[in-house]
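Notes to self, Leukocyte elastase inhibitor-like:
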Amino acid sequence: MGLLLMCVVIVIAASERLVSADDQQQLGLSRASSTFSQNLYQKVAVKETNVVYSPYSIHSALTMTYLGAKGTTATEMTQVLGFKSVSSPHQTYHDLIADWNSQHSVEVHTCNAIFINPYEMVLPTFIDQTRDYYLATADSLDLQEPEKAINVLVANKTNNVIPQMLKPGTLDASTVLVLVNVLFFNGTWARQFRRASTTQADFHQIGGTTSKVDMMHDFESHKRVKRDNTNDLDVVALSFLGDRFSLYVAVPRKGDGITSLETLLSSPQNAEQLFEGLDFDYFHLSIPKFKIETSLELDSVLSAMGMATAFTAAADFSGINGSGGLYIDKVIHKAVIDVQETGTVAAAATVVSISKGLFMSPGAPVVADRPFVFFLRDDVTGQILFQGKFSG
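result:
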């Protein structure tokens, strides 16, 4: 069984099947989130060896925060979050949350919460909107141990995969509001790998070095695959039970091909094309078992992506408290993925803190023995739940 866990936290400070959204809105939201993910990948993944993050968790937590944004702050967030073609992102997220939480073939659960400083003013309308759109619970911050309740929530909702989301001292008396998103995924492969077939194998890293990995093998794999001769890579989709969610693995054919693949992903529309044109084929598939844990502080990254005002005293989040003077203090994200023979379990959390101040002859094998990029994707909505890179 594999495990994937992601958590995002946003802190805001003060300075002195789809339920009801139409297909076009859901498609627009998935494209917005995917574009956001590829822009984020260039900032947080290209220079790293192994990384995992949840585009959904980060994007949805920021969108919940966006409920309170006004003026230039809202304009910049609209651009970064990609909402020009999405007229009702909050309602669309509401429908997606309800849809995922009702799945039975896999366990996919997402929840939201807000924690409010009891000595600070937060508009009842903002609290109501987070509840109505994001099904968010609302609780008071214990200023003696402000991180404790958040850590308990994340640990419980991720089956203790993320036991400590926030370190002591992350929050203080200037924290007005904390917004939290948690995402948990546990899926069994539609066709599992046989444990007895897993062997030690060479993994060829960038620069010519070689490491040993536990390589899983499916010698008679019947899966969707795309042989992309133009970009010199293969894309394989490993479906989970129910055939709605899949783990896509994009494997360059050359040992140093990860550089070209990451350059390709710098144009977000190219990422969407990776999921198109896959056909069923019989082939030998080899992919390593792997586990990745990532912690990200996204304040400077998001500023560089174009929403800098939200992190300054010029921010306008008057939709939260009615008077303004609030800014995003921290955006913290944690994720873990553990891919094994039986399936994948995944979880994520994001915290935003706001503070005061068919049969045919076997095809060519696909052997993931060199750095590759992966996506855990909802094939109905197009939402990318998790994205990352494994380099051994």
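- Residues 151 and 165 are 5 Å apart (CA to CA).
- Residues 1-6, 15-21 have pLDDT under 50 and may be disordered.
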